[in-house]
Write a structure and sequence with these properties.
Length: 94
């Protein structure tokens, strides 16, 4: 039986944004805003429910494995602060 082939992704960071949270919070544009602000080196994807279900907030998961970080985001907050927080999490500096 062959071993799975490991590949190097073209992106440096990975951000999951809960689709259900975005819909509930009326923040469907959050993913596209993060995608624009974080740039090409970060892949921002909608996920299925992440089972945290915060009221009025959106669940955002950054990274993976030991470096995985989970944030509950108020979609009304300053997007620049959110982008800085995610960038710091991807860099491992927070």
């Amino acid at each position: 039986m062959a071993q799975p082939r490991e590949v190097q992704p073209k992106w440096e960071g990975l951000v999951f944004v809960c689709r259900k949270c975005m819909k509930r919070a009326g923040a469907e544009e959050l993913r596209s805003t993060l995608k624009e602000e974080l740039g090409r080196g970060v892949r921002v994807v909608r996920s299925s429910c992440l089972k945290l279900c915060p009221k009025g907030r959106v669940c955002v998961v950054v990274g993976g494995g030991e470096r995985m970080r989970c944030f509950l985001v108020d979609p009304q907050e300053d997007v620049d602060a959110l982008v800085r927080t995610i960038s710091d999490a991807l860099d491992g500096s927070s």
